[in-house]
Amino acid sequence: SSTMSLSEAEVQSARGAWEKIYGDAEDNGTAVLVRMFTEHPDTKSYFTHFKGMDSAEEMKQSDQIRGHGKKVFSTINDMVQHLDNSEAFLGIVTPLGKKHATQLKIDPKNFRIICDIILQLMEEKFGGDCKASFEKVTNEICTHLNNIYKEEGW
């Protein structure tokens, strides 16, 4: 009954890849958000308290950005722990998708942006194999989030 398209071997290798970047969750989570806000400035509009921040240095120091970066990484970590249990995985992804679609009204393309930046960072820090191992996971996450958005009428 699994909704997941990952084999057991793929799950294991994705977890190994994720552990590397999650080892420094706050700094890496912050780096991902700072890169997103810098390269895609329109994404800042969703975060009212980041609006005045223009320099990457300023963003890196922000407690709110650091806190949110850590939160993003913690949530992905929960998903990664449940890649072999679709019910538990969807139990994390579904409320997240609903909240972002209905309350926060965040364009779903931003999930793809953030996933791509995570993959870039993995490749820069740990090489192409690490990135390749995690790519299927980001596709799963984005596919499920997009489905939830469709159900919510996006």
Description:
The model has no long low-confidence stretch (mean pLDDT 93). This protein is mostly helical and 154 residues long. It has one domain: Orthogonal Bundle (Globin-like). Helix content is 75%, strand content 0%. Helix 1 (8-22) runs antiparallel to helix 4 (63-81). The chain is globular, with a radius of gyration of 15 Å. The protein is built from 7 helices and no strands.
The level-1 CATH class? Mainly Alpha
How many domains? The number is: 1
- The overall pLDDT average reads 93
Q: Rounded to an integer, what's the Rg over CA atoms?
A: 15 Å
Percent helix among the residues? over 70%
Looking at CATH, the homologous superfamily is Globins
The SS-based structural class is: mainly alpha
Largest sheet: none
User: Tell me, what's the shape?
Assistant: globular
Oligomer: single chain
- The run of helices and strands is HHHHHHH
| CATH architecture title | Orthogonal Bundle
Catalogue the unreliable spans: none
Percent range for β-strand residues? under 5%
Give a count of the beta strands, DSSP E runs of length 2 or more.
Answer: 0
Our measurement of the CA-to-CA distance between the termini, rounded to an integer number of angstroms, reads 27 Å
CATH level-3 fold name? Globin-like
| Count of helical stretches | 7
